Amino acid sequence: MADPLIQIEGLYKIFGDDPLSVVPLVKEGKSKDDILAETGHAVGLKDINLSIHRGKIYVIMGLSGSGKSTLIRHFNRLIDPTQGRIMVDGVDVMTLSQDELEQFRRHKMSMVFQRFGLMPHHTVLENVAYGLTIQKVEKTAREKKATEWLETVGLGGYEKQYPSQLSGGQQQRVGLARALCTDAEILLMDEAFSALDPLIRSEMQDQLIELQEKLHKTIIFITHDLDEALRLGDRIAILKDGELVQEGAPEEILLSPKTDYVEAFVKDVNRARALTVETVMKPAACRITETTIGKALEQMKTFSGDYGYHISDDGYQGIILQETLETAVKEDANTEICEKQYEDVSSISPESVIEEVIPETLDTEYPLPVVNEEGDLQGQLSRASLAQVLGGPHSI
Amino acid sequence: MSDASWLTKFPQMDRSDLLSIKKTLDGGFREFSRSYGDYIESFFDPLLYFLVWLEKLLLQSPWWLVIIVVTAIVFSATRSWKLCLSVVFAFLVIGYFGMWDNTMRTLSIITVCTLLSIALGIPIGILMARSDRMQSFVTPILDIMQTMPAFVYLIPVVMLLGIGKVPGVIAVIIYAIPPVIRLTNLGIRLVDKEVLEAATAFGASRSQRLWGVQLPLAMPTIMAGINQTIMMALAMVVIASMIGVKGLGQPVLKSITNQYFTLGLFNGLAIVALAIIFDRVSQAYAKRSQRHMGGNQHG
Ligand SMILES: Nc1ncnc2c1ncn2[C@@H]1O[C@H](COP(=O)(O)OP(=O)(O)OP(=O)(O)O)[C@@H](O)[C@H]1O
Ligand SMILES: [Mg+2]
Question: What confidence tens digit (pLDDT) does each residue in B152-209 have?
Fold first, then answer.
């Protein structure tokens, strides 16, 4: 894999009058509450190490007070670390001068805020163009670009309105357009959708996914909602009391939570909606590669099951039962396997979420074939594996 | 007996000591004003020229021109015909009752005091909002300025600069400037943290944040401060007339010493009329320029 775009090493953040003096205590492993009681310092972040790769959506998750906002504000140095290194695209952010830091914020990163952070005294258009105004881009040019982005987020025609005249969902679209308008490579989103009601929120998630397919930005997305994290994230990091407790792909978090805390987090998740077929399918054991009925029957008899997935050079063909072959072999063992021997079972895509395939899986006696877009058999999904996954983390 | 007297009588400083303290301080200050008074006076010369110029301008222009110009200013600030009509009416009545010249003098001194208070007060308020140390340093000074009886600080001002317009203006400003400073500080500190953070996150520099976010968002509060400053300056006009500031205050002072009730009442009412005009105009202006900020500012 290529070098990570953002890399954080040994990051500590302690709030208080003399934060450096408290670092050794934190390293000794004293708890956040003890340190607060003893020294009056609040531990914000504790030994955070993470790498974020280009073009991915990286979700940081945790309960209220776990340090999510503190962490994301380190990326563009809205907060200075007590100790540690923050590398963005090969540059140590801590070495930047005030001037360089402003340039860095203007061009490299932009941010979307939980309570939108729109300028109430500017029109929607001026708000979207804000980043360009700061960069002193000439007026007609920035307004042209802002208009385009407003249209992209579906708010064409609202240019002259003021933020207070818009609904929450619309305001956050303005916030998103404002962040996208500077063409920054990295997008920081601090609980960007948390203030929205569920319906608007899922609409915004769809929009973000759709945009990301076109734009391939590196997005750091903060949320306290695991469903949202699983839906958006390419990778997920879980914070607890300022500590990174687990980091990994969504399936990893869901299927093998490392600590009780993470487990409690994932317990209530609707796994059927969060996991894809790919993550729970098993390798397809019974592959029939012969072309004639007789040979195929012989091959099938070596398998444990009484069914097989017929595969030719062109990929997956269909599912055949032993029963069917036995009847057919009586007529002529040397004819080739054809359409009419296949069972009437549709295949499923590895990308579909489990919820979509539950009915089919339950309706069919055999494990369903998982076939990708190119027509190759990727694996099989049985009722048993479905039951296992939906049963919760304990059963794995 | 003498050893227990402190129980019944406050153990006071020796009379002669107290006297010598007073003498030294007074003497020192007198010395200071004698040697530096001229420099300080010449330092304020530009202010004096401006004051005299504005007063002459208002006094020598024909009355109808003054009314037209003032009404035009009121209209451009408020867009309210009703307010404009009230202003015209108030000025006509004032002129009819023979208070035109004094009103013009007061108007000019209030204008100058307000402009100076804004010019000094807003930067001080900004500095206060920037650092907590500055705030804890300035706040007690403002407290003193607002509670110290005006006559007390009139004394050194008069000692330094004598009697006249400039010391009057200084006294009025000392009395009237605290609200602008306080409310500028407060307004900037109350600016929505997330909006300010957004500006920073998009790479705004300190001055871009100040001019683009902090001041515009603090403007309703700052305007309230300016409004209060104007009101206090008008209230101070009577006291300032004691040190030779001409205007509506002088007839009021005269009517106190000679017990002319009606004269006092008329001139008092003229001050009230000016106050109401300033108040309504500045409030209407503030409202008009902030009409979009309603729902969002604190939410
Ligand atoms: N300016 C500050 N001064 C002192 N302590 C702070 C400060 N900012 C944050 N903290 C501490 O850091 C911890 C993490 O705060 P943070 O705002 O990052 O949490 P969060 O995960 O974003 O929570 P939420 O979901 O509520 O936004 C808090 O427990 C708080 O005690
Ligand atoms: Mg937060």
Answer: 888 888 888 888 888 899 999 999 999 999 999 999 999 999 999 999 999 999 999 9
User: Residue B100's closest CA among B75, B54, B69, B67?
Assistant: B67
Q: Is A4 close to ligand 1, i.e. is its CB under 6 Å away?
A: no
Expressed as residue numbers, the domain containing A32 is: 6-108+184-268
Give me the residues of chain A with pLDDT under 50, please: 395-396
B6 Cβ neighbours under 8 A, 6+ residues apart: none
Asked if A135 reaches chain B (Cβ–Cβ under 8 Å), the answer is yes
Q: For residue range B225-281, what is the model confidence (pLDDT) as tens digits?
A: 999 999 999 988 888 888 888 899 999 989 988 989 999 999 999 999 999 999 988
CA of A69 to the centre of ligand 2 (A): 4
| Residue A273 maps to a domain | no
Q: Which fold has domain B19-298?
A: MetI-like fold (1.10.3720)
| DSSP state at residue A93 | G
- Say if residue A333 is in the same domain as residue A260: no
Distances (CA, A) of B242 to A57, B111, B238, B270: 73, 19, 7, 18
Cβ distance B292 to A162 less than 8 Å, yes or no, reads yes
Note whether A357 and A298 are same-domain residues. yes
Residue A383 and residue A240 in one domain:
no
Chain B residues closer than 8 Å to A76 by CB? 201
Extents of the domains making up chain B = 19-298
The pLDDT of residue B2 is 56
- Give the three-state DSSP class for A276: strand
